[in-house]
Amino acid sequence: MQMCNVRSVIKSFLILVLLSSCAPDFNWREFKFGDDELTFLMPCKPEQASKEVMIGEQKELLVMVACNVGEVNFTISRLPKPKGIESEQMLELWQRGSLYALTGSDKMADSTPKKIQFKISKNEVWGQEMSSNKSVKAHWRWFEQGTWVYQLGIYDPKTSSKVDLNKDLEQMFFDSIQ
């Protein structure tokens, strides 16, 4: 068990060294919500905010961390799984809310979520991804873990040319969950 942890740390360190040498705007660091079992990589020092939101008939506390590299915004949000609301319904509500915040409309005609499977540590996890290419290019990933529902997001203004946000950097952010 400890050998796997050592390999994981070495692998993460090597990836960070390679990325930091290739992308000087990015300063990757680990982030963990205080009481969470998951660890995420953020490309800069995040700031945290929280807000009560209505999910069905219930108020829930949405907690978000975010940081900017140039004009590109990276976010990680989490909500407790609400009682009495199925997972699929919860994800759809969050997806519609994200689209509405970005475009002023919750219509999913342009942006259809797709089911994906990815790994957190060595466990296979099902989630959903969705992108929007309006005035801000957005890419989201939602998944459940334990008693939480998470959303990771990258928001890149189309006018931004200061940051080279390539697919490898996006994948680093989305696939770094431990």
Structure write-up:
Strand 8 and strand 9 form a beta hairpin. The chain has a seven-stranded antiparallel β-sheet, with helices on both faces. Residues 1-23 have low confidence and may be disordered. It is α+β, with helices and mostly antiparallel strands and 178 residues long. The two termini are 15 Å apart. The chain contains three helices and nine strands; from the N terminus they run H-E-E-E-E-E-H-E-E-E-E-H. The longest helix is centred in the first third of the chain and has 21 residues, at 2-22. It has a single domain (2-175), classed as Protein Transport Mog1p, Chain A (3-Layer(aba) Sandwich), CATH 3.40.1000.
Return Rg in Å: 16 Å
- What is the residue-averaged pLDDT? 80
> In which range does the helix fraction lie?
25-40%
In total, the number of domains comes to 1
**Main sheet attributes: strand count, strand direction, barrel closure:** 7 strands, antiparallel
Tertiary shape: globular
Structural class: alpha+beta
Number of E-type strands: 9
Instruction: Output the CATH class name.
Output: Alpha Beta
Gap between N and C termini, in Å? 15 Å
Strand content: 35-45%
**What sequence of helices (H) and strands (E) makes up the elements?**
HEEEEEHEEEEH
| Overall CATH architecture | 3-Layer(aba) Sandwich
Number of helices: 3
Under CATH, the topology can be stated as: Protein Transport Mog1p, Chain A
**Spatial order of the strands forming the largest sheet:** 3-4-5-9-8-7-6
